[in-house]
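Schema walkthrough. Field components (list of strings):
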Amino acid sequence: MSGGRQPRYALFLWTCCLAAAEGGKLLVVPHDGSHWLSMHGVLQEMHQRGHEIVVVAPAVTLHIKEGAFYNLTRYPVPFQQKDLESHFRRMNHEVFEKLPFWKNFFKTRERLKTAAALLLSVCSHLVHNQELMTELGDEHFDAVFTDPFLPCGPIVAKYLSLPAVYFLHGLPCGLDFAATQGPCPPSYVPRGFSLNTDRMTFLQRVKNMLITLVQVFLCDFVYSPYVRLASDILKTEVTLMELLSYGSIWLLRSDFVKEYPRPIMPNMIFIGGINCAYTKPLSQEFEGYVNASGEHGIVVFSLGSMVSEIPMAKAMEIADALGTIPQTVLWRYTGKPPSNLAKNTKLVKWLPQNDLLGHPKTRAFITHAGSHGIYEGLCNGVPMVLMPLFGDQMDNAKRMESRGAGVTLNVLEMTSADLSKALKTVINDKSYKENIMRLSALHKDRPISPLDLAVFWVEFVMRNKGAPHLRPAAHDLNWFQYHSLDVIAFLLAIVLTVVFIAVKSYMFCCQKCFGKKGKAKKAPKSKSH
Amino acid sequence: MSGGRQPRYALFLWTCCLAAAEGGKLLVVPHDGSHWLSMHGVLQEMHQRGHEIVVVAPAVTLHIKEGAFYNLTRYPVPFQQKDLESHFRRMNHEVFEKLPFWKNFFKTRERLKTAAALLLSVCSHLVHNQELMTELGDEHFDAVFTDPFLPCGPIVAKYLSLPAVYFLHGLPCGLDFAATQGPCPPSYVPRGFSLNTDRMTFLQRVKNMLITLVQVFLCDFVYSPYVRLASDILKTEVTLMELLSYGSIWLLRSDFVKEYPRPIMPNMIFIGGINCAYTKPLSQEFEGYVNASGEHGIVVFSLGSMVSEIPMAKAMEIADALGTIPQTVLWRYTGKPPSNLAKNTKLVKWLPQNDLLGHPKTRAFITHAGSHGIYEGLCNGVPMVLMPLFGDQMDNAKRMESRGAGVTLNVLEMTSADLSKALKTVINDKSYKENIMRLSALHKDRPISPLDLAVFWVEFVMRNKGAPHLRPAAHDLNWFQYHSLDVIAFLLAIVLTVVFIAVKSYMFCCQKCFGKKGKAKKAPKSKSH
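Field assembly_structure (string):
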């Protein structure tokens, strides 16, 4: 927005930021999986700006690997690469099992419990690794950059007394609202897993309220072990809120083109779409596929970095549907190829998703509705067929569907015909393309790119040793003080006392006045008897 | 923050913004006084970016004048320049009258009523000027840019069906929170005129709650006439909330270095400090004063654009105090010079406040704590002696004082010695300079300058015809729906019904079981008799 002239004010700022950008030291405590992949861009930019970056990760990981722009410090964990991979393969297959609601609920809970236990042990092996922790302390970092989805990073930051920057899409069970002191009225802010939009019927509001009432207990089994771990390591009793609210700045991979507008807090910085920041030209292989697709163009199909194969019966159903459209489908799939695969469908072990979505010949995107995929579809303006599998994916899908930018399918219930119909709808019904293009334009119409914004705030925390001026005083109140219950009780007590005294006085006066008269009347009466 | 490399994402954005910056048309409905002066910078920048700007203003104004970068359209009002000036002169003198609390309260109310009636008549003469309104309608503006402090601009915007961008410091009586649907817990968000900070004692929280309960009625006399005017002009019943919530984007001249952190809404954009954006070199006259001040430097003294003279007794008291410090004092004062004026004090009819505050020889700033002055002191890192007079100035002063960046004086109660002591304190006690420099650095440490940010969002609303994706669904709920009272009542009714049925069933069972036994026992008894 600078035009030709640079206001003096901006020059002030610039001097300050450039000065601080020299030689900072950042400690990164990442999460494996797509969470790590989207952090990548920020670290690369930080490195280019002259900061030294140290990433601590367990010895066994899925996606965290050596990188040119950071030093990777590994610590031992009590499992092997094959254990981790088989764990996730098993999880992937279980996701596709069709079970009755309650059975599914408990099975999901069990699955999450197993995963949580595994990840907790990873964290425990980091914070109990005395040698490594001492080494990290000696490095004198400026800040910790972490995803607090599981609060291992916050424990490390608190232990090392370093300010922390959080990088996340959101926390489950409303923990992000609670930890930032962000009000979250259940009347128009849809709760996770509710499938509500921001405009709800009465019964949807009832559902939203019921989820609000129980959500605090739903995540307890995942988070309470971290509280115990933190209390143990920090040698003082801490609460989950103390742990999560430790972050100075919350970089939220979120944007109000996807999310519904709601109250936010000053230390929340919205950087949704940061993962679309960089695109590269397509490789020869993919350029070849796209060019060969002719006038019909291509459809990109991926179920995310965690799910690369699915049960054969489902794969065959999907393959059948993909054969019914004239577009070339590029499907990221590592399993055994379905026997009914049509000629238009190319299976690839990996695909440059964002680059392909950015190609003008891309007509649709079949996605599991993970937050990264949603924002890549949004940035590039590609209508979506949404097949959510777990976590926040159902809600992500609902948001895109409610805005007319995609069609949601239940991957367990859908038939081949449903998928075929959905694909033809988003490709041929012009309203889907128009809606996603409108959303895409709004999403990209920002005063500063999300990557630059994220880098600015990481450096802000590094140079200012946190951001205490953005921390609301609400953190120092307990729940009844926060809701002014003590004040209300006090004022009510005064009102009631005044009313009580007034009534008593009135009655006393009445008694005095009328009582005397009564007596006066009675007296003569008795006398007259 | 861009470094050497420009991410592709930012290029996307840039193309979009530059394209839209061509030839937009902006209608400006300003407020006279300092509110207008701070809008100036945005209009200048908008003009430089190729937009056509039309400012509508009454024929009689204090500060709104012809400008090179906008077309000024005047409309007739039923008073003369001398009436307006004498009105404000009278107001200025009344501010310095020392009265008992209640007398002062009612006198202030009366004064505000007179001012409000005058300004309402200005608005009425605009919106009832059928010829002008038709002309404005025919111009096909892209948006209205207005200060909604008195909601004349919103009426014009609604009448012309144009999106509106608001530019303001805040609204009184919590109307800004109410109109944006921003939650505002009285437990830690201090209310206007409370003089509380964000950390309150129990009794301060009681005071805050009491103000919360009554504030809605306090402003009614100012705003309800606008609601009647709007309903009349728009030919439909509107509420104050509908009128104020019409703004797509709220550009708030506010910043969390001055304000306490609190919940905000996605369409609030914080551009505090925008008025410090441009500085010019000092004129020869002022350069001369500064150079002649020697090692002691200067003190800048201004009570704002509205108060340029004060009663003689008070002026003499102040002049006396100013003579006790070694600094040269530049005092903006248009009244008769006090006879005891010391040699170090120079009276000037006008002073380039921001440029003087930016001079390294400036040691202190005596200010009435208007929002503009506060931010200019903050940007330039100058400790302040705060002499609040009316409106939000007491609260502004409290915020600076609570952060150790200034000393507040009650201008009516203070003696010459108090002012002298306060000046010596902020100049000689290093903590004041250190605190204001720390705040100043934080205030200027932003990813984008407030002026660029403001211009971006005005253009955003122009090119996107508003910002409906940032409007919370809460606007469509009534108050009991918003607070989920209907849902709570429904759930309570279910719980009570279930409890009632359970208790009844239990009692019925008991009666059946024990009742029979009882009867069974009784029966033989009766038989035995």
